[in-house]
Structure formats: structure tokens, C-alpha cells
Amino acid sequence: MAKLRSMVAPPLSLEPRGDHSGDEPSGAPPLVPGPEDSPTAAVTAPLAPELVDTLPRQWFALLRAHGPIAALVVIGAALRGFALSESKGSLIGDEAYYVQAARVIVGLPVLATHLHMAVARSFVDPNREHPPLAKVIMAEMIRLMGNREVAFRLPSVILGTLTIWLIYAIVLKLRGTRSQALLAACVLTFENLCLVHGRIATLDIYFVAFILVGTLLYLSSYLEVAALAFAIATLCKTNAILGLFAVLLYDAFMGRSYWRTPVWPTVGRRVLVVGLYLGFFLIGLGTLDCFFTEFTGPIAHLKHMASFHAGLKSQGSSGTHSTPFLWWNDEGTFNYLSVRSTRHGVVTKRLLFQAVMTGYVIFLAPLGLLYAAMKAWTLRSPLATFALASFLGNFVPIFMAWAVMSRTSYIYYMLPIIPSFALAFAFASGAVPTKVRWGFVAVMLYACALQYPIRVL
């Protein structure tokens, strides 16, 4: 016990130590609190010189790391949000279907286009060939902000802007550099089809944004939430199932040893994601059907959608219809809206919303994909492999539906494929000089200036 007591520190004495000679060396300061010991001393005391020198460096490093992507996001939001109401009551492209459906859900009058006035106050989604989630979001925005263009287009602006950051984060998650991630974000910021669909109230930007959310979560191993994100994307438009197929294809590619001997270490996670995805989707569709459609359950609605889309047969390359072969030459394009304002016979303003891709992107895409495929085979680069898997997963099913089933196709079906182009360009940019990368950014800016849908002359 004596030994144990010796190991315990003696209790502190609260008596003044100046009364005990020998307790402290002669001349030592008494233990009396002074100004430097006050509670405010830590606040009023000057910072150490080395800390003062470090803070600007930390801020500069933070700005250098995140400033460029923040600038791109702000620019992307400005390009998408500028003058949302310039169409002056006109619906742009397929807004004639989806905004009309949103107005019916809210119970507002509809424009006399393809809907009969009798359905105006039915509060039931008349656009039964697609799941109702995106239209319900538009309807709630109309209910919140009023029946005006900003209300039903604002979600597209937000989601379109979000895709810029998402593709940046996906490149970093796939072990790309910040320069590569910025180039991919630059593509989605200025590419015309992404820009136009990020300004108008159609379903496509909804499901593309949620696909990218699901992809980032899947790559981050948040499998349950990733399955939910893919289910939400599919509740906006059924084409989103191809986004899930693409990430599963990527897992299959990366799960092969030397690309020859199959090994499937990720079978369990793929089964988990698919199972959760189906559960979330069916529960979500059934819930939406109960409130916004006349279907009694998700199976009946799925049967109707399958029957409807199977009946859409290709009519060749006429009007808005086109073939996947034409897309690679940037043909099969059409106008969503074309309006000219004149004063005294002089054109003062032009609105031209086109379903057309940026020419530089579609012409360089085969080279970028070919290079990514080659490096995916030889180096098994995650970024190159995912670019290839994303392209195959999203494009091949659309091509086969057209080639085998004569399914109608439109050039805006390329919208969910453009992120795969951005990933391929990002990977290839690591093999070219800096001047070439800046040249690519310059031509993207030039093309955006030429094709921007609103121009005051």
C-alpha cells in the first residue's frame, strides 16, 4: 500500500506558497493570478507569427482547390437561370406535355394544345406514359410560386447546375486529377443540349441529375442511398434504369482479373443495390399512383408504360424523329422554340432553343471514347473504364431498341450519354499538353456563345 501511495501525486495546496520557505526556489514568482492568466487573455493575446503567416496560405490553398469549380457552378447557374420568363407564355418543346400535366395536377386551366379542357381540373396526371414524380415536383412549384415560367423551370435550373458539380466529384472519386475533373465539369457547363435542358421544364434533366447522384453514391459505397437515388431517377423517367445498368457494368469490368478470368467480388453489392432499387421504385410508383394517377398499383402502370413505348415505331428521319447514326454527325436536330422580336423592322431579340449538341463535343467523342477504351483494357484505369461503361450502358440499349424493335428515337436521347463523353475527355486530357486543354475550353466557350438560346441584338 505504501508503494501504491507513492505512485499517487500529492494533492495540490491552495495556501500561498510564499509562507513556506524551501517550497520553491528563491526569487520565483508567486502563484497569484495575473492579467495573463485571465479568461480573456486567450482572446486578446496576439497570434503567433507563424500562425499569422499560415492563415493566408491556407485560404489561398482552399481557394485554389475549390475556387475553379465554384466559379463553374456559378457560371452554369447564371447561364441556366438568365431570363427564364423570356418565352412570354410560350411552352418550349415538350413542356407542352409536362407543364400541362403539372397544371392539371394542381387543378389549373391548360392551354388548348393536345389536352382537352375537360381534364383541366381532374387533378390526375394525364401524361400516363411516364412516371409522375418530375411532374409532381413542377406542380408543387407552381402551387408554391404561382403559374409562371420561373416556377416550373426553376427545378431544372437547380438540377442542371447540380450536374456540373456531380460530374466533377465523380471524376475525383474515379482517381482523376482536379484538372481532369474541371474539364469534365466544363463540358456539362457549356454543352448546348445540357444547357437547354437545364433551362426548360422537361423530364430529362431530372433523371440525368439523379443518375449522377446515384453514381457518386455508388462509387462512394453508400449502396442503400445510391439505390434510392436511382429509384428516384426512374420515377422521373424510366430511361434512368440505364444509369443503374451502367454502374453495374462498370463493376463487372473492374471485377475481372486481367480482363480474362472472371472474378465477381462485388456480386453481393450488386444484388443488394438491384433489390433495393426495385423495392424503392415499386413502393414509390405505387405511392404516386395512389395520389396522382388513376392506376390502382405500380404493376398496372408499368404495363401501360411498356405497351405505350412498344407502340412507338420509327418513322425514319423526319420532323423531330431521327436515327442514332445521324446523331454522330449532329443531324436530326430541330427547334424547341424560335421567336424573333422586331422593332421598326429590325430584329432586336432572338429566342432559339434547339435540340442540338455542341459540334465540337460530338465530333471529338469517338476519339475520346476510343482512347478511354484502349486504356481501360491496358491500364484498367477507373476513370477510363467508367467512361466506357457509362457510354455502353446508356447508348447501346437505345441503339438496339431502334435497330431491333424500330423504336422511335430523338436526338435528345443523347443527353444522359453526354456525361460519358465528359468523362472520356477528362481522361484523355491527362495525355495532352496544357495548351490543348485550354484550346478545348476556348472552343466550348465559343460554341456556347454562338448557340446560347437568348440573344439581344
Provide structural commentary.
This protein has helices at 2-6, 41-44, 49-81, 95-106, 133-145, 149-173, 178-190, 192-197, 204-219, 223-236, 241-254, 267-292, 298-310, 324-327, 359-378, 382-405, 418-429, 434-451, and strands spanning 256-257, 261-262, 334-343, 346-355, 454-456. By secondary structure, the protein is mostly helical. It has one domain (69-297, 311-456). The strands form two sheets. Strands 3-4-5 form a three-stranded antiparallel beta sheet. Strands 1-2 form a two-stranded antiparallel ribbon. β1 (256-257) and β2 (261-262) form a beta hairpin. α5 packs across α6, α15 (359-378) crosses α16 and α15 (359-378) packs across α17. The protein is globular. It starts with a helix and ends with a strand.
Key phrases:
457 residues; mainly alpha; three-stranded antiparallel beta sheet; two-stranded antiparallel sheet; 18 helices; globular
> What is the helix content?
55-70%
Sheet/helix structural class: mainly alpha
What characteristic shape results from the CA principal axes?
globular
Strands of the biggest beta sheet: in what spatial order? 3-4-5
> What is the ordering of alpha helices and beta strands?
HHHHHHHHHHHEEHHHEEHHHHE
Q: How many distinct domains?
A: 1
Cα end-to-end separation: 96 Å
Annotation field: number of helices: 18
- What is the count of β-strands? 5
User: Approximately how much beta-strand content do the residues carry?
Assistant: 5-15%
* Overall average residue pLDDT: 84
Low-confidence stretches: 1-33, 39-43, 257-264
Give me the Rg, rounded: 30 Å
- Characterize the largest beta sheet: strand count, sense, and whether it forms a barrel: 3 strands, antiparallel
